[in-house]
Every structure is written in C-alpha cells, then in structure tokens.
Amino acid sequence: MLWLAGALVQLLTLVALVPLGPRLVPRLRGPAVARGVQLLLVVLAATWLARLPVAVAAQWWRRRYGLSDAGYVRSLVLGPWLELVGSALVACAALAVGMLLARRLGRRWWLAGAPALVAVGAGVVVLQPLLLAPKLEPLRDGRLAAEIRALGDELGVAVDRVEVRRASERTTRANAEVYGLGATRTVVLWDTLLDGRYPFAEIRFLAAHELAHVEARHVWKGLGWLVLLAVPCVWLLSRVVRLEDPAEVPRAVLAVVLIQLAIVPLTNAVSRRYEAEADWIALRATHDPGAAEATFRRFVRTNLTQPDPPAWARVVLGTHPTTLERIETARSPALRAGS
Fold first, then answer.
1. What is the predicted pLDDT for the residue at 187?
2. Using N-to-C axis directions, what is the helix angle for 32-64 and 249-286, rounded to 10°?
3. Cα first-last separation, the chain
4. pLDDT digits 0-9 by tens, 126-160
C-alpha cells in the first residue's frame, strides 16, 4: 500500500507540474538545454518533497516492525544522499543528450536516442560500484572470503573483490548483491548479514547466489533487455513529447514514469526468472539445500518477506520468486538426484 501511495503521489505531482512548464521556463537562464536541465531539477525536487510524507510513513513502518532503527533524517536524507545525487546526475545527463538530439534531428531523434539510453544504462552499471565506494569496506572474515573465492572457482567466476556494505545505517534487513561488469565487478555482503543472525552456511549460499548471477551473465542479459526495450520506449517518448522544448520537461518525466510503470510486469518477470536460475546454480554449487531452505525461512523472520503474496503483488512488486517457490526449488528431487 505504501508503494501504491508513493506511485500515486508521484503521478499526481507530475500531472500538476505539466501545465507549469511554460510558466517556469522564462524565469530560467541559459540556452534551451540548460533551462531544460534546471527545470528537471525543479521537477525532481518537487516530486521528492511530495513523496516525503509517504517515505516518512514507510520509515515509521520499518521502525515499528524492527526493520530499521535509524532516525528519519538519516534514513531519508543523510543515508541515501549519494544515491539521490547520482540518480539526479544520470537523469540530467540523459535529458541533455535527448534534448540535443531532438533539436538536431527533430522527431527522428529516437533513432539516436535509443542507443544513447543503452550507453547511459551500461555506464550506470559500470560506475555503480564507484558510487557505493564510500559505504563499502573489505570483508575481514578470512575464512568466509576464502570460501567465496572457492565457490567462484567452482562456478568459473573470478572473484575480484568481496566487500561489505554498511547497510545497518538504514536497515536491519540482510542481503547480498553483485555490481558492475568486468574489472568493476564486486560481490557485496551487507553488514547486517554478518551480525550473527545468519550462520556461515547460509551466508555461503547467499554468496554463491550472487556469484551465480555472474556465472549466468545476468547483468549482460539485463543490458540485452535494455537494448530490446529502449527502441519502442524512446520511440513512444518521441511521439508524446516535443523534447526540443524545455517547457516539455515535466511532460517528459511524466511519460517516462508511465512507461516505467507499464513495463514493470515484464521487468519483474525477467528478474524472477534470473533469481530462480541463480538459486538453482547456487544449490548445485554449495550442495547444501538445507542451508538454502533455512536462508529462505530466515528471510521471512528477519526481512519480513511475505511467504506467499497475492498475485497482484507478485506482478507489481515481485522481483524474486516467492519464499514457498524457493523452498520448493531447494527440495527438488532433481537436485537430490544430481540433475
């Protein structure tokens, strides 16, 4: 419900900002592209402020149910400031490129805009570990680090770095992640995963799950999906927005948000498929289905993961298979038979 409220507030704010674009642009300074970027920053700030009450309610919910002990200022402003600034910079760069192309190519700008979007997406994947660097530190557990490297060897994945993210500043949830491509590839364990609640075998399985994403080339496949979706999405944007006009920036942001919401069922379905594949690869690499099942069960208690959510929530919010589906995978007869 909080997600739905946040999405509704964002849409209503953007709808209200669309007619204000032509009034605000004359008050801005500089060439058209510069004014468009300035107006985008105004739009981003307005939507962030409009959604702030929902964000406060979400943090209240997390604090009430033990998912966070951080204060409101730290969790909503101080903690994510680097991600907020990074997202704003990416949005400004994407808008500037799009406006320049639109002013030069007219309504055919989408022909060059789609490859540009793919380039921006790839750049975000590559640079993401650098943006997170201030919150990462090397894993100090030598035994666990050695085990993760051994799992990498078994999966044919070169483990460049294993880092720990200071997630406890904002949440008590536990998780692991993988970032980047090639030399920037980083396996990240949240420090909440290392606070004593998760046994060694379960951390080992989660690390294997992240390495499985690398072994299965899910990041590259994700970029492939971006290539496939970029052309129709950018073409549609070029049909509904005159991007060469800075006054159209609020309408452009509204169109982008609507397009993103429209493709959520597809992107979530792809994500669930990749997460299920990573579970299977990790199960075969660790040979410990008991640890995997225990991990999935522990997520229910520590992360308040809903074991069997309703169908609409799976479609709109479900980036992973349900807990029951993941446990069923861990209990698969085919796994016990070595298939």
1. 82
2. 50
3. 41
4. 776 666 555 788 888 888 988 988 888 888 888 87
Alpha carbon 87 to its chain centroid, in Å, reads: 11
Q: Residue 133: which residues within 8 A CB-CB, separation 6 or more?
A: none
Task: Assess contact for 95 and 41: CB atoms under 8 A.
Answer: no
Neighbours of 220 (CB within 10 A): 12
Q: Is 219:128 a contact under the CB 8 Å cutoff?
A: no
DSSP-derived secondary structure letter, 75: I
State the pLDDT at residue 180: 62
What pLDDT is recorded for position 82? 73
Contacts with 224 (C-beta within 8 Å, 6 or more apart), sequence order: none
Catalogue the E-assigned strands of 13-151. 136-138
pLDDT band for position 73 (cuts 50, 70, 90): confident
Tokens 């035994």 belong to which residue?
143
Beta pairing class for 186-190 and 162-165: parallel
Q: CA dist 247 to 41, 51, 237, Å?
A: 13, 23, 15
Q: Give me the amino acid identity at 263.
A: I
Residue 183 has a pLDDT of: 53
8 A C-beta contact, residue 90 and residue 120 = yes
Helices (H) and strands (E) in the chain, counts: 14, 4
Contact between 20 and 231 under an 8 Å Cβ cutoff? The reply is no
pLDDT for the residue numbered 43? 95
CB atoms within 10 A of CB 332: 13
pLDDT the model gives residue 336? 67
Q: Say what the pLDDT of residue 185 is.
A: 65
Give CA–CA dist 169/178, Å, rounded.
20
Of 187, 183, 211, the C-alpha closest to 126 is 183
Dump strand ranges (E) for the chain: 136-138, 162-165, 176-179, 186-190
